[in-house]
Amino acid sequence: MLDKLQALREKYIHLEEQLSDPGIVADMERSKKVNREYKKLQPIIQAADKYERVLSNLDNARSMLTSESDPDMRDLAKDEIEILEPELDILESELKTLLTPRDPEDEKDVIFEIRSGTGGDEAALFAGDLYRMYGRYFAAQGWEVEVVDENPGTVGGYAKLVLEVRGENVYGKLKFESGAHRVQRVPDTEAKGRVHTSAATVAVLPMMEPEDIDIRKEDIRTDVFRASGAGGQHVNRTESGVRFTHLPTGVVAESTESRSQHKNREIAMGRLIQQIREAQIQKEASALAFARRSLVGSGDRSEKIRTYNWPQNRVTDHRLEGDNKNFNLDKVIEGDLEPIIEALTIADNAAKLQEG
Cβ contacts of residue 72 below 8 Å, gap of 6+? Predict the structure, then answer.
């Protein structure tokens, strides 16, 4: 591990030098890329510095224990070893987690979709609550959000909402949010105070380009068509809808969410790439990879990943275990999602480490 840390430290120093290079600073895209890599390595280097300091102090204490003749100094060395050994174990575990290979898609921006599910008007209202919750979290992260499509519910909330979210490590933070979110509470329209159960689905789609996987442009057939829906006459008069067909596999993906054909092309291409990628994963994944995915859920919309229980002021994530799966609803609904996301990330990294 020390050899790997040394190589990363050398890369970190090189990136630091590049950030002060006038030629790189003047190139906005290159500067942005270097800065992103530098920030990605920063927590690893900081943890490595602390680990190496503790390791050095521990080596000195062990050396003192074997070479020192003064009983008081030997006792002092023993006390220091008792403190430093467990600290080193914790730091080593943290470093292993930080060094676990990250999903290359973690850095990607996303198409973020919320849809009301079972439960009628209450489901739409809950979809609106989810939008406010995620909106607060997005703002806290400093991400840019653009509403691509929105279909309001009849009494409030949303039947469907499609967002574009851009920023740092967006997919890495949001990839575990895909799935069915269930709510248990007394609706405002319920006269007898009975608790109802409703649901909304969340889909998180990384925004990818054809070069992200092996797709040739000549293998894609493109169709444009007049979209129908909530856009009124404008949508119906223009060919804004886009459909892509991947000829070798027969996979079809389309988008009519936006009035802009350009935006629909982006969304449809992202969906096409994602579907082809998922097909490849299912074909090539090993039994261990499937076991890891089952730990945190595959993100399929049919899965109930989380329950928001208003009467008990509790949010339960069903992919976690024991006391780690319950969270304070008041805090979560206000956008404090970091504890849940962190718990799911730790579980995923632990599974990766177990796989070796």
Answer: none
| Ramachandran area for residue 179 (φ above 0: left; ψ -120 to 50: alpha; else beta) | left
126-to-59, 161, 194, 222 alpha-carbon distances in Å? 57, 12, 17, 36
User: In this predicted model, which residue has the larger pLDDT, 58 or 94?
Assistant: 58
Element (DSSP H or E) covering residue 148: strand 144-152
211-284 has CATH 3.90.1150.10 classification: no
pLDDT value at residue 112: 93
User: Per DSSP, what are the bridge partners of residue 202?
Assistant: 114, 179
Stated pTM of the model: 0.63
Q: Is the pLDDT of residue 261 over 50?
A: yes
Which residues, at least 6 apart from 111, have a Cβ–Cβ distance to it below 8 Å? Answer: 148, 162, 163, 164, 165, 203, 204, 205, 207, 267, 270
The total of other beta-carbon atoms located within 10 Å of residue 184's CB is 16
* Residue boundaries of the structural domains of the chain: 2-99, 106-206+292-355, 211-284
Six-digit token string for 306: 């989380």
